[in-house]
Specification:
Shape: globular
Number of strands: 8
Order of helices and strands: EEHHHEEEHEHEE
Distance between the termini: 23 Å
Number of helices: 5
Strand order of the largest sheet: 1-2-3-4-5
Strand content: 25-35%
Length: about 170
């Protein structure tokens, strides 16, 4: 995976050494509330998630969720493209640790990701899925040019989510 750089951030491939950070991020209140419990109960689960979801995704698709770090190397979140079987094209995903929200980092990382998608992956359309109550993410997606096109349920008993597209 190509590393991306913005004014304040690096976006790079995750590796197994990032297990502690992934453990903390995937168990943060905002991840659990808006994305869901991935059952990352310990560092071994975090390493499995990194291998099976992130690293394998890079190898299979040539893209995936990338680790977002400050220029000093401090990891603050993830941002990237995902290929989900239930969507007809790739979608944008992002999440930051709560203490790094509100500083424009998510917009900066997502903008760089969208630019990479347009220039390198030749994407003409990107999707996003988002809970109706996730006002911060919906505002960011709107700022990136996403518009609601439909709703989607990931399972029969799951909450209805918004489906957005560029």
């Amino acid at each position: 995976m190509k590393q991306l750089e913005t004014e304040r951030l690096y976006l790079k491939s995750a590796n197994l050494k990032d297990a502690h950070f992934i453990f903390v991020l995937l168990n943060s209140d905002s991840w659990l509330k808006y994305i869901g419990d991935k059952k990352i109960l310990n560092l071994n689960n975090a390493k499995e998630y990194i291998q099976n979801t992130l690293i394998d995704g890079y190898a299979k698709n040539g893209f995936g969720l990338m680790l977002v770090t400050l220029k000093d190397g401090t990891p603050i979140g993830v941002c990237g493209f995902l290929k989900r079987g239930y969507l007809d094209t790739i979608d944008l995903g992002f999440a930051l640790l709560p203490k790094y929200e509100g500083y424009g980092y998510a917009f900066e990382a997502a903008s760089a990701t969208m630019q990479f998608g347009k220039l390198e992956l030749k994407l003409y359309r990107v999707l996003a899925i988002c809970m109706k109550t996730n006002e911060k993410s919906l505002a960011l997606l709107s700022k990136l040019g996403f518009n609601k096109i439909d709703t989607i349920k990931l399972s029969e008993d799951s909450e209805e989510l918004l489906l957005l597209s560029t």
